[in-house]
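Posting this for the archive.
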Amino acid sequence: MIGPIGTIKIVEGFNQAMSFDALYRSKNGDGSSSAAFAVAIGKEIESPKENEKALVFEGLNGLKVYGFTVSHSPVEPAFGYRIEFGGKSIVISGDTRKSDNLQYFSQNADILVHEALNKEILRKFLEITKQYPDDATMKTAALTAERVMDYHSSPLDVAEIAKGANVKTLIYTHITPTLGSFFARTFITIPMFLHGVSDVYKGEVIIAEDGFHYELPIQ
């Protein structure tokens, strides 16, 4: 994990929360597990400037992970990531409104994994909530929907980024609102969610689901 001062403290909290689970697994397993392997390591870095990236991880055989800033105010800083290995590249947006810096670091990426919030669908939901002015749950949901629309990207925003960056494959993730059952997804919500995307971006488009798996052959 990377971020401002405080990241290490948060990671230490995760380690503490999971310490008993790690201990139980190491004691009751087959002897091949060790609690020492269940420790996350936090890392603080300076937030990169616009059009600059920071190397946050370097692995074997040339694997490199870079962090760069995206636009998610009032949550600051917020980061996207570019992973490079074997002549291939994958960009992960993190949470962000439409970001020029993200498009800059997505240039010619093989895959762009980008969050998306369909504002038109949420606006329809807001119209429904107005029919229940005395319902506290509806009121809270409406306030949340109005707030988050300002600092997330729409599907069309993402399509424009993918087109401008010459991305080969676009994968939508962290999708808001949720798309429902298989039947609803197939015939109603996915077509609504992606409305207009194919007019902007001509590459491969995928809606990620829980457990989604994608194999990208390296050179």
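The mean pLDDT is 89. The chain has two domains: 1-44, 47-207.
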